[in-house]
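Query structure, 127 tokens:
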């Protein structure tokens, strides 16, 4: 049945009034990093397929993957992998109804951000 009372409903908060919380930003970032991981995975698959095709094609693709742009994509994918993994652990904690208090949830969000940056840097240094 159609809603005949549409004109009397309050409007959603406007973006200039609404202040995004850390938990909403990290949730959006989790979705973005999940999709961004696909770009890095496709680049790796392209590199592997080129290795299986021919030495000349592999040299061409390897030049792209090891270029500054390719390194930037792989570095971003590495950070996205760590961030997405830590955010997944955070959601597992929340699924068990733990650490849901506002202050603790915000600290956990900062821990995910800082942890992903630290683990990315450590991974680059070690590897």
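Result returned for the query:
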């Amino acid at each position: 049945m159609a809603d005949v009372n549409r004109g009397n409903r309050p409007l959603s908060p406007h973006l200039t009034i609404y202040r995004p919380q850390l938990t909403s930003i990290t949730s959006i970032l989790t979705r973005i990093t999940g999709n961004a991981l696909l770009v890095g995975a496709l680049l790796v698959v392209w590199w592997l397929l080129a290795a299986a095709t021919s030495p000349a094609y592999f040299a061409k693709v390897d030049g792209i993957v090891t270029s500054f742009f390719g390194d930037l994509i792989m570095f971003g994918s590495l950070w996205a992998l760590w961030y997405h993994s830590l955010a997944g652990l955070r959601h597992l904690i929340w699924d068990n109804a733990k650490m849901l208090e506002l202050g603790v949830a915000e600290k956990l969000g900062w821990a995910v951000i800082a942890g992903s940056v630290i683990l990315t840097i450590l991974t680059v240094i070690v590897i």
